[in-house]
């Protein structure tokens, strides 16, 4: 039997037999595991139609025991025999429930769980997905649905790309014109929008209940055209580049014009005024409010594709903005180009280059580790969830690569940047940029099933990962996604189960 486990646990031992879940099944709570027991009861009710009683009692055959431990980290153990024994910290219990949900087969009268012993822990501490809400705005419910999908695969960070040339997406009390003037549109003239502070707090709260940390990004000093709609005094006039001109012509998209919403998706033309006093007053206001809203340890400050900014000015800006972020009590994250600068000690780099680094990309990434930081691996030709599966796929772009499921799976984070110690890799992130998507269905089409491949790269031991095994397991997992209504793309090379 192929167990539909993705990401693959550290240790799995199968045995014969199965445990049936019936109306007599109970959830036995031990050591204050009430929150996890409630999550499990909700999942079982949704999947089987049965809601087990949650109680503190003597364990009987057929029961599910949920035991909270005081050990730190995300480890858990799951034993399924005459009863179920699930043990872990708060996060570990949550991840164990996701594993149990993958194993659960329903038959209309309850459910069945195979006899198995699992001991599990993640390879990397940072396992992220990114949602670009700047180019296309997605409401709070859609972000929550994205969290549901990601957390089911044991991702623990949600990177929200909150600003770009096409729009600004967060209420800032000290800078009210951002919501009033910079949030009204999106790419190709789609409807705009922004999150109120209460909206953002609700996203953070919901993410926390799914053991995900929100990582907000304000992209700087480039990707800032929308800021100029509200505060033109701090933004430079657009600087055209050959790539922007060629893309605009090929796609019949407008070029950026100062003071007008930018509806295309070309990059590299915008910048804040690097040395302006008003710029730094603005940034202190914005980043202070964002830090106050964000309970997690990170603020992402961008740093990519500043094609019209002189290198010395860019380096000066990055040095200053990472220092400001540190001063506000947060660890800065920046795209790998920022490694050219003297980033603040401990700044984390996010590598988005190819698995075969070009130009200075590898050097830039290494410098984060040299300055006491670490690196998140997001190679664009394997981990970018917005790229097309094949040339004919109706959604997505293809500037980085055509990324089929096997390509998304078969890469190793530690072999990309020569000289970067494996211990300096904080983790893995799969970004979803939103130029071509508008709905939750569109999101599902691009992330499923590739997000499962990224999840396994981030969680499972490198020595156990193998394409044929993953192909079979993800095919069996498709029925779980179907039951949840997460239809997505179903590549024909996978034997999808209707279990």
From TrEMBL:
It catalyses: Hydrolysis of terminal non-reducing N-acetyl-D-hexosamine residues in N-acetyl-beta-D-hexosaminides. Keywords: Glycosidase, Hydrolase. The keyword Hydrolase applies. GO terms for molecular function: beta-N-acetylhexosaminidase activity. It holds the Pfam family Glyco_hydro_20. It comes from the Bacteria. Residues 124-306, 314-461 form the Glycoside hydrolase family 20 catalytic domain. Its EC number is 3.2.1.52. The keyword Hydrolase applies. Residues 4-121 form the Beta-hexosaminidase bacterial type N-terminal domain. Gene3D superfamilies: Chitobiase/beta-hexosaminidase domain 2-like, Glycosidases. Belongs to the glycosyl hydrolase 20 family. This is beta-N-acetylhexosaminidase.
């Amino acid at each position: 039997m192929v167990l539909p486990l993705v990401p693959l646990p550290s240790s799995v031992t199968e045995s014969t037999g199965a445990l049936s879940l019936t109306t007599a099944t109970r959830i036995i709570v031990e050591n204050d595991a009430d929150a996890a027991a409630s999550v499990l009861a909700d999942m079982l009710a949704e999947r089987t139609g049965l809601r087990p009683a949650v109680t503190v009692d003597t364990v009987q055959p057929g029961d599910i025991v949920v035991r909270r431990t005081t050990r730190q980290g995300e480890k858990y153990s799951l034993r399924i025999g005459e009863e179920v024994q699930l043990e872990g910290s708060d996060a570990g219990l949550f991840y164990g429930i996701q594993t149990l949900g993958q194993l659960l087969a329903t038959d209309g009268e309850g459910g069945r769980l195979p006899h198995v012993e699992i001991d599990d822990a993640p390879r990397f501490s940072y396992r992220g997905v990114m949602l670009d809400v700047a180019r296309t705005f997605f409401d709070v419910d859609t972000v929550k649905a994205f969290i549901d999908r990601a957390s089911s695969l044991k991702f623990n960070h949600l990177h929200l790309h909150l600003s770009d040339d096409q729009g600004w997406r967060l209420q800032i009390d000290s800078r009210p014109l951002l919501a009033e003037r910079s949030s009204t549109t999106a790419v190709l003239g789609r409807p705009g929008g922004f999150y109120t502070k209460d909206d953002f707090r609700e996203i953070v709260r919901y993410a926390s209940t799914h053991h995900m940390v929100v990582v907000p990004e304000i992209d700087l000093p480039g990707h800032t055209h929308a800021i100029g709609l509200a505060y033109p005094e701090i933004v430079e006039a657009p600087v055209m580049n050959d790539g922007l001109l060629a893309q605009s012509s090929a796609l019949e998209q407008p070029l950026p014009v100062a003071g007008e919403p930018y509806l295309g998706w070309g990059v590299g033309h915008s910048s804040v005024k690097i040395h302006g006093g008003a710029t730094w007053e603005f940034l202190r206001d914005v980043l202070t409010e964002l830090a106050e809203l964000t309970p997690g340890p990170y603020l992402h400050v961008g740093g990519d594709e500043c094609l019209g900014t002189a290198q010395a000015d860019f380096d000066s800006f990055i040095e200053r903005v990472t220092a400001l972020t540190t001063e506000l009590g947060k660890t800065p994250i920046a795209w790998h180009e920022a490694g050219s600068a003297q980033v603040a000690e401990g700044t984390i780099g996010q590598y988005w280059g190819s698995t075969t680094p070009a130009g200075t990309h590898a050097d830039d990434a290494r410098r984060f580790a040299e300055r006491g930081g670490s690196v998140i691996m997001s190679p664009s030709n394997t981990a970018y969830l917005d790229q097309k599966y094949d040339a004919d796929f109706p959604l997505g772009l293809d500037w980085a690569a055509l990324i089929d499921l096997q390509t998304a799976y078969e890469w190793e984070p530690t072999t990309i940047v020569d000289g970067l110690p494996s211990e300096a890799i904080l983790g893995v992130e799969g970004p979803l940029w939103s130029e071509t998507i508008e709905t939750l269905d569109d999101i599902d089409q691009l992330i499923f099933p590739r997000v499962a491949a990224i999840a396994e790269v981030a969680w499972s031991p490198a020595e156990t990962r193998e394409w044929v095994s993953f192909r079979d397991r993800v095919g069996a997992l498709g029925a779980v996604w179907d039951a949840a209504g997460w239809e997505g793309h179903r590549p024909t090379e996978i034997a999808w189960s209707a279990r």
